[in-house]
Specification:
The chain is an alpha/beta fold and 543 residues long. It contains 19 helices and 25 strands. α3 packs across α17, α12 packs parallel to α14 and α14 packs parallel to α15.
């Protein structure tokens, strides 16, 4: 690793423009942001993928390797990625800093406490919750109905025991007894707000607009009614500043914000992305999980707030994952199976077609594994040719930037083509139409079924004139449907909507489908079982 001042200098930032956290990571100061924003925009490349499988896809690895490969062919490239959550790190998925020779570093720092952004968000979320309960305890002059408080507490770890709890027990001195809930920090509205705010003033305005509860006569109560938006913003003043690190090949990387894509909008902060476009000629950014989740949300929720739309989209797949989608057993994925690959290609085909809805050039990156056979690679290239999409086999994990030179050149060609970005829907459409459009066009559903609760909430949106917001659908990442067992390219199924929650500070409506939970649980054998640290501070078992 190089000193973070050297990395900042590569993109035109001086030591006065960054706030170092040690030798290898720093925040970009407000003055540094203002300085960079005077530059012209570079090109923006969005990296997304097929639906994730236990076989692995390596989307972050490809995004990081692509930035390194662009640097290797003489392009001024920069990354804009999300921060990892402790939930996956300690659970099953692991960290989010790439793999092999395509990583952002220092990996241990980024995957753990980093610069404290996650802790600040957790503290701010719980401070607001404490202020709400204190208002109840001190007389409740706003007439808040304790049964209709929708603000949830947060913790940045999978803790299923906190999904539904009872607080305020122990008598009058301990406030009003009521049912409460926790969600993981990366699903909190404050995380979304941080990632969608342009500056402190925008942050405060968004916080003031957060819907926290309803009164006994069902009137909405906002943070501005408590008059604490300044205090909450104060807790996030440093977290709002983007973080700068580097790749193993010293490509600058901005890592900032970390909403999950299955239960939130799944993209790093727009401040980081806009800033990266000012600092590099090519910005590589990534949307969480598959193109049906993070990719769609990037295009429909995030892009309208960016200085310009992506110039190209990269859809990442692996031969192993496609064979798994085609029915090959996980234990047999190292064996050649052309039939399973042919069947599983339908998943990749759907994601390519979905991204083409937005009228932006699309290319495919195949993240190469050692077990991929020549016959499988040839078949996949033939299938992509028939689909009319350029494809590159990238051996980035094993060879770093050298393994992605062809991909980098392909992306440069794609980004030079004309792009005529268009959203899938317009905000003015009723919420139910926006949900139906995503369900049919992106997921392949032929019907959307709403619970009685969801129908009541749709009416609440109309009654309060909150119907003109984009929708953020919370759905399993493992399938295009809301059933994680429906692999490949399911069609003509029913999408089940169980709840609809207005996130007015973030500026979108969250639609919960299937059995999705905003507080996940840890697996039977969490990754934490294999982690350790020695007397010299060396960490093992973190991946």
């Amino acid at each position: 690793m190089k000193n973070i001042n050297e990395i900042a200098n590569k993109v035109g930032l001086g030591s006065e423009d960054i706030e170092p956290y040690g030798h290898y990571k720093a925040k970009i100061s407000a003055s540094g942001i203002r300085k960079a924003m005077k530059n012209d925009d570079g090109k923006l490349i969005l990296v997304t993928s097929i639906n994730p499988t236990p076989a692995g896809e390596g989307k972050s690895t490809v995004a990081i390797g692509l930035a390194d490969s662009l640097q290797a062919i003489g392009k001024k490239s920069i990354l804009a990625l999300r921060e990892p959550s402790l939930g996956p790190v300690m659970g099953m998925k692991g960290g989010a800093t790439g793999g092999g020779y395509a990583q952002v570093v220092p990996m241990e720092d980024i995957n753990l406490h980093f610069t404290g952004d996650m802790h600040a968000l957790t503290s701010a979320t719980n401070t607001l919750a404490a202020l709400i309960d204190n208002h109840l305890h001190q007389g409740n002059t706003l007439n808040i109905d304790p049964r209709r408080i929708i603000w949830k507490r947060a913790l940045d770890i999978n803790d299923r025991a906190l999904r539904s709890i009872t607080i305020g027990l122990g008598g009058p001195a301990n406030s009003i007894p009521r049912q409460d809930h926790f969600e993981i920090t990366v699903a909190s509205e404050l995380m979304a707000i941080l990632c969608l705010s342009q500056d402190i003033d925008d942050l405060k305005e968004r916080i003031s607009n957060i819907l926290i509860a309803y009164t006994y006569d069902k009137k909405p109560i906002f943070v501005r009614d408590l008059r604490v938006e300044g205090a909450i913003a104060m807790l996030l003043k440093d977290a709002l500043k983007p973080n700068m690190v580097q790749t193993l090949e010293n490509t600058p990387a901005i890592v900032h914000g970390g909403p999950f894509a299955n239960i939130a909008h799944g993209c790093n902060s727009i401040l980081a992305t806009n800033l990266a476009m000012k600092l590099g000629d090519y910005t590589i950014t990534e949307a969480g999980f598959g193109a049906d989740l993070g990719g769609e949300k990037f295009m429909d929720i995030v892009t309208p707030k960016l200085s310009h739309a992506p110039n190209a989209v990269v859809v990442v797949a692996t031969i192993r994952a496609l064979k798994y989608n085609g029915g090959q057993a996980l234990k047999n994925l190292q064996n050649e199976d052309l039939n399973a690959l042919n069947l599983g290609f339908k998943n990749l085909k759907r994601h390519v077609q979905n991204m083409r809805y937005y009228h932006v050039p699309v290319v495919v990156a195949i993240n190469k594994f050692a077990t991929d056979t020549d016959n499988e690679i040839k078949l996949l290239q033939t299938l992509c040719d028939e689909l009319g999409v350029e494809v590159s086999v990238a051996d980035i994990h094993h060879n770093g930037s050298k393994g992605g030179i062809d991909l980098a050149k392909m992306v440069v060609r794609a980004a030079d083509k004309d792009a005529n970005y268009a959203r899938l829907y317009e905000d003015a459409q009723p919420t139910i139409e926006k949900i139906d459009t995503i369900a049919s066009e992106i997921y392949g559903a032929n019907n959307v079924e709403y619970s009685q609760k969801a129908l009541r909430q749709l009416q609440t949106l109309k009654d309060n004139v909150w119907d003109d917001l984009p929708v953020c659908i919370a759905k399993t990442q493992y399938s295009l449907s809301d059933n994680p067992k429906k692999l490949g390219s399911p069609r003509d199924f029913t999408l089940h909507v169980k709840e609809i929650v207005p996130k007015l500070g973030a500026g979108f409506v969250v639609v919960l489908t299937g059995s999705i939970l905003t507080m996940p649980g840890l697996p039977k054998e969490p990754a934490a079982l294999n982690m350790d640290v020695d007397n010299d501070g060396r960490i093992s078992g973190l991946f």
